[in-house]
Amino acid sequence: MAQTARRLFSYPVAPDRFDELWDGDEPRPHWxxxxxxxxxxSEPALRERERFVQKAIASDxxxxxxxxxxxxxxxxxxxxxxxxxxxxxxxxxxxxGVAQRARLLDAVLADLYGPQSLLREGLxxxxxxxxxxxxxxxxxxxxxxxxxxxxxxxADIARAPDGTFWVIGDRTQGPAGAAYALQNRMxxxxxxxxxxxxxxxxxLAAFFTALQDSIARLAPTSLAGPGDRPHGxxxxxxxxxxxxxxxxxxxxVFLARHLGFPLVxxxxxxxxxxxVYLKTxxxxxxxxxxxxxxxxxxxxxxELRADSALGVPGLLAAARAGNVLLANAIGxxxxxxxxxxxxxPALCQRLLxxxxxxxxxxxxxxxxxxxxxxxxxxxxxxxxxxxxxSMRMEPVFGHALDPEGRARMIERMSAQPHAYVAQEWVHxxxxxxxxxxxxxxxxxxxxxxxGERAPSEQPLSEQAFTGRSVAMRVFAVATPDxxxxxxxxxxxxxxxxxxxxxxxxxxxxxDTWVLSDGPAPATAPLxxxxxxxxxxxxxxxxxxxxxxxxxxLGRYSERCEAIARLLRAxxxxxxxxxxxxxxxxxxxASVTVALGxxxxxSPLSVRAGNSVYPESLPEEDMERDFMSAVTDPASAGGLxxxxxxxxxxxxxxxxxxxxxxxxxxxxxxxxxPSQKLTxxxxxxxxxxxxxSCVSLAGFAMDDMTRDESWRFLLLGRRLERLLHLAGVAxxxxxxxxxxxxxxxxxxxxxxxxxxxxxxxxxxxxELLPVLHLVVLDPSNPHAVIFQLQDLLKNLDASAEELGATxxxxxxxxxxxELSEIDLAAFERSPFEGAAARPSAQTAALGSSPPxxxxxxxACASLADHLSSVRAAGFALSDALHRKFFSHAGTPxxxxx
Length: 896
What we know:
By secondary structure, this protein is α+β, with helices and mostly antiparallel strands. The protein has four domains: 45-361 and 426-439 and 475-540, no CATH class; 362-424, Dna Ligase, domain 1; 542-688, no CATH class; 705-712 and 723-896. The protein is built from 29 helices and 23 strands. Strands 3, 4, 5, 17, 18, 19, 20 and 21 form an eight-stranded mixed β-sheet that branches. The longest helix has 32 residues, at 855-886.
């Protein structure tokens, strides 16, 4: 076994560090079972497991956003192929220490925001507490619902060279990482199923069940104060996120799905009568508990940061009245500073009457003269950190400073001693990890450069496993029986030889396997058993923001497809050398300008009230304008700008998407065309966009649950198609007779009806049949009348589902008027003589030639009708927003 281990993990063991795998020349006992499981694997087979892990992370859509990252807002999460293994005996010590520390910090928070006896007794320096921006005065004397301040706690723990564990950081505000730990477990258990089963690894699911139950137990189920009205409904817990641009947004989505909590943003919640309500598509719904992932000072712009657009106005007032549980309590972030670590041993004796079982590294707050003096004299053995969370400062390792840097650091510490903390520098333990073959990547750098092979595809001789510094983040949740510690952790791996363990700076993660010393543990269910109440009420908690973003997701996906079809029709004619392609090109250009798709850089002519490209304008200028509409994000009505809007809408409803649906959306949103594209390259991009948009339409019909939010997605799609078709057809009708005739073929292409037309008429396009197919054919899913009729059907279905009256009066009137239009006036083309015989298209429509008729008057009349259709469509969009999305002026419901 040792020989196999040496073959696979032949990295040098550092003499000044604890090695998690090696004890001298032998593997440690708790690693032997795993090594025996993989002993039969060749190096290529182990690399195949590594490729499996990478593909699983990609297919599950696991991301970690890094601000200003060149990879973008969806940087793939990095998981090492090897687990981090701990024996049961060591874990019991860790779990007991973390649970005790959670009890201690909860008691400290209760005192700091309550009687403040610790400050009066001199156990904590007032300057260190009140000098922190994290101490929030509006939360003073705010007793949280259930009396618990710290519902979820996380301790960052590392092992020193002597094998003991130390706390290197506390996470008390909204600890991140628990869902990543669960995702890591789900992935690695599939990569090594036999080893996972044989080693009797402790499951993680019970921790999340405890989190559900704890919040439900502590949530207030009645309204406090005058008019207290108890009721029998189940408490509603929501997960409050800053939004899709947050670094750990994937975790917010993951937690919301697994815990069954609606994922909400600040705009989804509203405070009425000192109670919090969720704006749903069915109206306001009382919120009893909020599991927040929003920083303390952003939570309430009324009492905290006035510039916060992420919080809920009045949230503190609702918490102060005892009408909502906030997990964790507002103001809990003050304990995240390392400056307090040196005071915790005495605080533990004072508050718990116990010795601190899991202490932090030796820490000195330089605001005390003896501590400052010690830090200056022993700088080479210390790490200098900021004492206040508001300071933007990376840790400074004293041993890494040159003489000049050392002098500057001492000068800064002496000038503002209260702003610095000195902490013992401990060489973190090392564990085996997969090594990057091309050296350590800089923060935000892609995993492999374009054209390079990914690490797992490199030749084996270029790769190896090596030792990397590691630290664990261990989680605890408050329960009626004290704090329950997750039997596992998010283990993070430092890049290269660094001792700074941070995913933001190029580090990756490991799954933490805690071995059981008893029978194989049973996997606890992730959530409580559903009741009939849950079944009956399961569809009424869809936030209005979800409905709104799905509505706009439908609109933007349809808009991107429509713009792509219109621009493709133009670029195809740009590449056509035939003389007959020039006139249609100018008519397309005029229509795209009228609809705002193209922003011309040259002045246009005005003809019959419409802006048109002048005959004298060089074709190169039109090409420049079309290409700008494809590639330039600054072109507001163009494709690139609308793809960005599509991505933003999709990001806000990621939790509603299946993985396949999300992959299409993500790829589509990321397909922002390069401004260096040729016309041929632009045509390829347009084809890709159209195929992806068609896929989204298929997902909408076959993949999504048919609830009221799905109905708004369909409403958005139909409404956008209606607005586009009516706009294109109406603008074409306003062109000159010659330009109108030149537009008929590309109009069919833009309406995705060219194949239907050719199959039905087998002749060149003429005005009458084209207008019938694109405007008045109820069997054509790309006709204006079809969109109107289908919109009304979906509005009726939504009215029944939501028990609401729909603002559809204008739409019904317009539909009736359009249905009565007689196209006979369009039968005779302006280019035919008075004695012209009926065409094949006329015969197919079952019409007879009229005695006469003014086609221009008929075109103007139909264009007016189509303009009214667009006006009614825009009015419907505004009315839906007011009624279902903003809830402006909606009173709080009674009886809750």
